[in-house]
Design brief:
Blueprint (H helix, E strand, L loop, with lengths): L4 E7 L9 E8 L2 E2 L3 E3 L1 E5 L9 E5 L3 E2 L7 E5 L9 E5 L4 E2 L5 E2 L1 E5 L11 E5 L4 E2 L6
Antiparallel strand pairs: 1-2, 2-3, 4-7, 4-14, 5-6, 8-9, 10-11, 12-13
Pfam family, one: YmaF
Protein name: YmaF family protein
InterPro entries: YmaF
Length: 136
């Protein structure tokens, strides 16, 4: 019995020559296989003009197991009569000792407020989560 399978092979960069490539299957028997994942992120901005803001979100999906980054977007909490937007691209994946990975991110918010200002923010994403398509 033959099952049609599609995918791709990526050089893993491991020093072990027996495992220098990884196979990623993109479809199995004509059905797509989801290899995407996302990361939660949250934090608190810098303290500027007498206040700070909190933020939380989930990165945009990216492929698992290959060198990648994630785009992210979130609105901050409403403090001092206004809020800000944070958006950007994470750094590359940083492996965790027990498997999985996380990403670093940092930047400045959009300008807003009665006294126009920005806040700095930064941190690390949470460990990866599988991204499952939602059905409605």
């Amino acid at each position: 019995m033959e099952i049609p399978v599609t995918g791709f092979v990526v050089h893993s960069g491991d020093s072990d020559s027996n495992h220098s490539h990884r196979l990623f299957i993109t479809s199995w028997d004509g059905r797509p296989v989801n290899n995407d994942h996302v990361h939660p992120f949250k934090g608190t901005t810098s303290f500027d003009v007498g206040h700070c803001h909190h933020y939380a979100g989930v990165t945009k999906p990216a492929p698992s197991g290959v060198p990648h980054v994630h785009h992210y977007y979130a609105e901050t909490s409403f403090n001092d009569q206004h809020k800000h937007i944070i958006r950007g691209t994470t750094g590359p994946a940083i492996r965790l000792p027990g498997g999985g990975h996380y990403h670093r991110f940092e930047g400045c918010t959009t300008v807003n407020g009665r006294i126009p200002h920005v806040h700095k923010y930064g941190g690390s994403t949470g460990d990866e989560e599988e991204c499952r398509p939602q059905s409605f």
